[in-house]
């Protein structure tokens, strides 16, 4: 195809790669670039636009991550096939289709495994974070400043859904970082995701049929199991949860992690997202629960937009947490309810007291407003990116025997055997050399059979030397 007629400018404040990304994404959505069309090579487009080749590569990487385009080895980049993209209408819950041509449990380091009673001195937990990065001095200063004044209101009972100032701040942060569209009134602050998920029994009712991918986040599955009338598991593929499986299951609520599924690391492309939104909007009582648990950590391109940002029919319940980005002990999470569910919340939940201390809410609010949170995130991203890149380098000798997936985001990667192998055998081999790794089947919600073993390697809680030593041992053991 000919080079794209992209007009780049310095006047709109956007990076050049963002302008290239947005132009191509818009052309695909509008049907001006058709499924199967080949894009210019990164070198060709960079020469045409007079920009660095890395600028075009960043734009292409982001488009590929979101499912607009795909890379075909030795051939180039092609437009993905998306049969139809749908915009969800807001009036009467209707649909307006637009035909388009284009397409855990927490593991603690240094603990004994109950199955083998062995001591692990290196633990590749996918849930651990690096607490050495926490800005103790800044947090201590903010806490001291807040408590040094006679702020009696902080010791009074606060609003059930959380302090308004924090909800305003979270609202602005989510819109800027994840594209979430909401008002502060739609945000509910709670002590961890568990509490917020439990609130859904009063908001959605106990008569729901809840669908989960298999494997998935087992704690959330157990929470839904405690109140849902029926639980179902739905097949998934390389694009995430399958909508035909949702339809066949009879579910009316689906728990999804589109930005990065746990534990598989799958990033849901734009086509599957629009299918999900279409499914949710085609019946009055259907909802999607979007768990956006670690969207801050992405090492190529921009963060993947939230599913909620594309929802104009009010069918996505968005849940996030500060446990990964700040510290697990902070225990501050948030839920964004669609406006259509606010009446049910007010009627059935507004008498519950807030589960988060007003002092902790005020400290976090000041931490974000002062810019300390953004500086902390940037520091964490840099450190985790370095660990991620080191891990990938160390894994190179294993890649003739194992396939790597789930890289470039989050805090863990996956290794899958290229020849038939038993998962338990791999875990035992690693345990014999003092290394704890995690099997994919440990996150299974229902039995599933596979001849190829998959293990998770988390790197967030390990320093670089322990990553090197851990992979050196695994190379010998596996």
TrEMBL record:
Keyword Zinc part of the UniProt annotation: no
HTH gntR-type domain span: 14-82
Gene3D superfamilies per UniProt: Type I PLP-dependent aspartate aminotransferase-like (Major domain), Winged helix-like DNA-binding domain superfamily/Winged helix DNA-binding domain
Region described as Disordered: spans on this chain: 92-114
Record keywords: Aminotransferase, DNA-binding, Pyridoxal phosphate, Transcription, Transcription regulation, Transferase
GO molecular function: DNA binding; DNA-binding transcription factor activity; pyridoxal phosphate binding; transaminase activity
SUPFAM superfamilies: PLP-dependent transferases, Winged helix' DNA-binding domain
SMART domains listed in its UniProt record: HTH_GNTR
Matches recorded under InterPro entries: Aminotransferase_I/II_large, HTH_trans_reg/aminotransferase, PyrdxlP-dep_Trfase, PyrdxlP-dep_Trfase_major, Tscrpt_reg_HTH_GntR, WH-like_DNA-bd_sf, WH_DNA-bd_sf
CDD domains the UniProt entry points to: AAT_like, WHTH_GntR
Family, as annotated: In the C-terminal section; belongs to the class-I pyridoxal-phosphate-dependent aminotransferase family.
Protein's name in the database: PLP-dependent aminotransferase family protein
Protein's organism: Candidatus Eisenbergiella merdipullorum
């Amino acid at each position: 195809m000919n080079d794209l007629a992209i007009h780049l400018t310095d006047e709109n404040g956007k990076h050049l790669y963002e302008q290239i990304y947005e132009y191509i994404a818009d052309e695909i959505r509008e049907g001006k670039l058709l499924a199967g069309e080949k894009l210019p090579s990164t070198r060709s487009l960079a020469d045409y636009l007079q920009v660095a080749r890395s600028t075009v590569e960043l734009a292409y990487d982001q488009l590929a991550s979101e499912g607009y385009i795909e890379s075909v080895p030795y051939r180039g980049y092609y437009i993905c096939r998306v049969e139809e993209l749908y915009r969800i209408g807001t009036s009467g819950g209707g649909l307006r289709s637009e035909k388009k041509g284009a397409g855990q449990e927490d593991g603690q380091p240094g603990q004994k495994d109950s199955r083998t009673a062995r001591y692990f001195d290196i633990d590749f937990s996918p849930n651990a974070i690096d607490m050495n990065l926490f800005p103790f001095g800044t947090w201590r200063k903010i806490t001291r400043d807040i408590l040094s004044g006679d702020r009696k209101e902080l010791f009074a009972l606060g609003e059930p859904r959380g302090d308004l100032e924090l909800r305003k701040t979270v609202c602005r942060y989510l819109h800027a970082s994840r594209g979430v569209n909401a008002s502060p009134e739609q945000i509910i602050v709670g002590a961890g995701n568990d509490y917020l998920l439990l609130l859904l029994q009063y908001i959605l009712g106990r008569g729901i049929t809840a669908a989960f991918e298999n494997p998935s986040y087992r704690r959330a599955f157990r929470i839904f199991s405690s109140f849902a009338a029926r639980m179902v598991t739905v097949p998934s593929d390389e694009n995430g949860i399958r909508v035909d499986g949702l339809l066949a299951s009879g579910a009316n609520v689906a728990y999804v992690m589109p930005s990065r599924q746990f534990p598989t690391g799958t990033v849901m492309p734009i086509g599957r997202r629009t299918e999900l939104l279409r499914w949710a909007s085609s019946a009055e009582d259907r909802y999607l629960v979007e768990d956006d648990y670690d969207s801050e950590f992405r090492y190529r391109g921009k963060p993947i937009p939230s599913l909620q940002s594309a929802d104009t029919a009010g069918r996505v319940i968005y849940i996030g947490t500060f446990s990964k980005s700040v510290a697990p002990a902070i225990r501050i999470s948030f839920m964004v309810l669609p406006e259509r569910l606010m009446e049910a919340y007010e009627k059935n939940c507004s008498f519950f007291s807030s589960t988060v201390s007003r002092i902790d809410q005020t400290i976090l609010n000041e931490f974000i407003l002062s810019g300390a949170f953004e500086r902390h995130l940037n520091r964490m991203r840099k450190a985790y990116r370095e660990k991620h890149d080191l891990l990938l380098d160390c894994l190179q000798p294993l890649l003739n025997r194992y396939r790597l997936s789930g890289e470039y985001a989050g805090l863990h990667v996956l290794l899958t055997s290229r020849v038939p192998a038993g998962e338990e055998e791999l875990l035992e081999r690693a345990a014999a050399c003092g290394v704890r790794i995690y099997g994919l089947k440990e996150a299974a919600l229902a039995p599933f059979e596979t001849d190829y073993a998959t293990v998770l390697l988390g790197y967030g809680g390990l320093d670089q030397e322990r990553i090197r030593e851990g992979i050196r041992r695994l190379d010998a053991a596996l």
